[in-house]
Amino acid sequence: MANPLDERDFQKRMARVESLLHELDQGLDVQALTRMQQILRAVMELHAAAFKRILDKLAEAGATGLALIDALADDDLAASVLLLHGLHPLDLETRVRQALDEVRRLLRSHGGDVELLGVAGGVVRLRLLGSCDGCPSSVRTQKTAIEDAIYAKAPDVVGIEVDTPARNGHATAAGRERIALPILGH
């Protein structure tokens, strides 16, 4: 996990990149902008190939290398780079399950839980369980905690569909809500 100082530094750098891209978009003609996009794509492809080679070498090193790959996957910054290049060692559903496991203690302290119904096309389907017999504030607390946990572990999720419990404790179609998460940024 990145420490807070590293996270602030990362956010500043991302803001700077976004600002520069916006300036390029506003100030360049279409041909120059296209050329810049091609250069950026080529650099990204080069980095992806290099990261793939690094991961392959680590995997070839055996148990120690595999442990290092796991450590990289657990580091927020390194994991985001692996995701960016399609190299994260864990699939989306596994990362969502990990996020839900991490948030369960908080959910249970509010009298609730969450069940993963499935992941398809980047959309996570969940069912909220318990939750103070339909108390709206508790449901909101659960949803917020779940969204934050999932986004932290799986920023590539494109949406979350949540079946919320009705007063009798059973989810209904009327209790389903689709929550769209931003792909880049929170």
Brief summary:
The protein is an alpha+beta fold. The protein has helices spanning 4-27, 30-60, 63-74, 76-84, 92-109, 131-134, 136-153, and strands spanning 112-120, 123-130, 159-165, 171-180.
Kindly describe this structure.
The protein is α+β, with helices and mostly antiparallel strands and 186 residues long. The chain has 2 domains: 81 residues, no CATH class; 89 residues, Fe-S cluster assembly (FSCA) (GMP Synthetase, Chain A, domain 3). Helix content is 62%, strand content 18%. Strand 1 and strand 2 form a beta hairpin. It starts with a helix and ends in a 6-residue tail after the last strand. 16% of the residues are buried.
Task: Walk me through the topology.
Blueprint: H1 4-27, H2 30-60, H3 63-74, H4 76-84, H5 92-109, E1 112-120, E2 123-130, H6 131-134, H7 136-153, E3 159-165, E4 171-180
What keywords describe this structure?
186 residues; GMP Synthetase, Chain A, domain 3; 2 domains; 7 helices; globular; disordered C terminus
Look at the structure and give the mean pLDDT: 81
Order of helices and strands: HHHHHEEHHEE
Low-confidence stretches: 167-174, 180-186
Residue share in helix? 55-70%
Global geometry: globular
Question: What is the fourth-level CATH superfamily of the largest domain?
Answer: Fe-S cluster assembly (FSCA)
How much of the sequence is in beta strands? 15-25%
Strand order of the largest sheet: 1-2-3-4
Main β-sheet, in a few words? 4 strands, mixed
